[in-house]
Every structure is written in structure tokens, then in C-alpha cells.
Amino acid sequence: MSANMVDWELAVALGSRVAGDGPAVSTGEAQEVVTGLRADAERSTGLVRDYTGLVAEERTAPVLVVNRAGWVEANAAAFSTVMDPVVARLTEAKGAPSGLSQALGSRVTGAEVGLLLGFLGSRVLGQFDPFHDPSGRLLLVAPNIVHAERQIRADPADFRLWVCLHEETHRVQFTAVPWMREHLFAQVQDLVDTVEPTRMAEDLVAGASRLLRGGGSLLDVVGTPEQREVLDRVTGVMSLLEGHADVVMDGVGPSVIPSVAQIRRAFDRRRQGVGVLDRLLRRLLGLEAKMAQYRDGAKFVRGVVAKVGMEEFNAVWAAPEHLPSRAEIGDPSAWVARVLG
Q1: Is pTM, for the whole model, over 0.90?
Q2: Cis ω before 130 (30° cut-off from 0)
Q3: Cβ distance 50 to 123 under 8 Å?
Q4: Which of 4, 7, 81, 92 could join 110 via S-S bond, C-beta 3.0 to 4.6 A?
């Protein structure tokens, strides 16, 4: 049903053009990068298991090395999956639009989504896509990895393995913790259930006004108390997942990546954005909040592991109720007291 509201073909075509092809590489180098990333992802599975104790019984979620257009297409499909229930709710409340308004509206929305995907598609290094059936999939964006390693002047072999350690940790999180995928789906459904179609326009206008005054991000555009409660839960989960992956990539790193310390310092500088426009877009798209998830989540994981060790920390994966709240992300001792007693 979301296809009637968003011109996904336009979104993918525009997003691919905006993202571009990435850095110039020869055919031979491109093949070497793809082969190497697949090998690094395979190698990372055992490294993540040995460091964390998490065991993914089988590679049910495939690893795909893609170009920027491939990432845009994959995420358009994921966006469509997420938007289906929202669109269904809006259509139920307001009825289907006329043919002309629907066609015009879908192209406008498709262009907006395409611009967003294009901006992100030129920057994302890798991503676990939990919405792809049946068990999700891991995407490694080869041209962006090459661009980043050149930008920070990292050793290519070290940097590629370092990235794969982070992304493979996400794949292991979802395949070794079988309830995690459905739990995230449930959070999305909870967010959809808070949508009040008759108030959406007012919320969007108010949110846009806040943005123009320099406050908040697009994540704040729709922010009823019910939605904020759900977003707090999602923030806690995502902070855990991102922070855990950062801890793993840095924890494993010294034993297999000689230049890991230099890579981390240079990469953290890169995460801050390289120009005024880039920093503005990151704030508007909520990417500054994403950076906070890496930082705060990693501090939480390190804080808990320092107190009780990795084996006891793994109680976090035992059940949804063991996940940290947003408040507990900032207070590891509170999580330890609640979950481990």
C-alpha cells in the first residue's frame, strides 16, 4: 500500500544519482575490495564470538557487498516495509486520495525520500537490515569504505577488518539473539499505534518550526508523549546495539589490527562532519543523536563489563525486559542492580 504514497522507483533513481558512484577504482581493485570484505566478514564471525561469547549458530542472515545504488535500493525496500502500517492507518482515517493528487504526492514524497537516501548512501559504511526476510541481511558498502579509508589515510587492510568487526557484531546480535528482530518490529508497531492521523499535519508544522528556529531534529517532528515513550525504548535498544559493536571492534582490534588506535582517533574526527552543510544535515536528519548512541552505548557496555565481566553482561541478551532503558544507558550501575541484583 505504501507504493501508492511514495514513488519508490523515483526514490531509488534519484537517491542513486545523488549518492553517486564513489571514489575511482580500477576493475581489479574493485574486485579485490569485494573479495577482501567478504573474507573479513567471514573472519569476523569467530573474532566476535570469542570476544563476546555470543554464538550465531548459522549464517542465516547473508552478507552482501554492495555499491551505493545497491544500498539505496535495499533501504528503499526497508523504508517501504516500515511505512506500510503507517500508510494503512492514514488511509483508513482519511480515505485514499484522488488519482491526480496521489500521483503528484507520491512523486513529491519519492523525491524527498530519494534525497535522504542519496545523502546517507554516500556515507554509510555498513548496515544490518533487520527488515529483510527471513532473517535480515548485512550490507557492506564498498565504495564508502574505500572513500573513508582514503579520507582518514588508514591502512586499507586494517580499516576494512575494523569496519567488518563492527558490522558483523550487528549480524551476530540479531542471529544469536533470536527475539531481537521481532522485538524491534514490535517497537515499530507500537510507534505506529501512537500515530493520530488528524494531528499529523499540526505536528509536522510545529516540528518544522522548531527546526527552523534551530532546535531539535527530524526525530522531534512527531513527538507526542506516547511516541516519546516508545522512542525512549528504541533509543535504549539502539544505543546498546551500536555501543556494543563499537566496544567489540575496539576490543578485538589490538590483537588483529595493528593500527586500531590511530584508526579510532581519525574516524572519530570524521564522524563529527567535515563542513558546515554536512554538520547541518547531520543534525536535521538526527545523525547527531546517532553519534550519541555510539558514544553513550559504548560507555554503558564498558561500565557494565568493568563491574561484572562480559559473561554477566550477556544477561542483557536473555530477554527483552533485560534491555537497558534510555536512563540506564547513562547509569550502568542502575541496570546491574535491576537485572543482576
Answers
A1: no
A2: no
A3: no
A4: 7
**Residues in CB range of 301: below 8 A, 6 or more apart:** 240, 243, 244, 247, 313
Asked whether 15 and 119 are in contact (CB, 8 A), the reply is no
Residue 280 has pLDDT above 80, yes or no: no
Contacts of 339 (CB under 8 A, 6+ apart): 315, 316, 322
Neighbouring CB atoms inside 10 A of 205's CB total 10
CB distance 297 to 243 below 8 Å: yes
Q: Which three cell numbers stand for residue 304?
A: 557494565
Taking only the tens place, the pLDDT of each residue in 218-255 is: 455 555 677 778 777 888 888 899 899 989 988 998 88
Contact 316, 285 (CB under 8 A): no
Amino acid at 67: N
* Whole-number Å distance between alpha carbons of 6 and 106: 4
Q: Nearest 5 degrees, angle CA 84-CA 86-CA 88?
A: 70
Residue predicted with more confidence, 251 or 59:
251
Rounded to an integer, what distance in angstroms lies between the CA atom of residue 222 and that of residue 203?
6
Nearest residue to 232 via CA among 181, 128, 224, 210: 224
Q: How far apart are CA 163 and CA 257, in angstroms?
A: 11
What's the residue count for the chain?
Answer: 341
Instruction: Map out the domains of the chain as residue ranges.
Output: 24-63+125-340
* Residue with the larger pLDDT of the pair 211 and 89: 89
Q: What is the largest CA-CA distance in the chain?
A: 61
Task: Provide the 8-state DSSP code for 320.
Answer: G
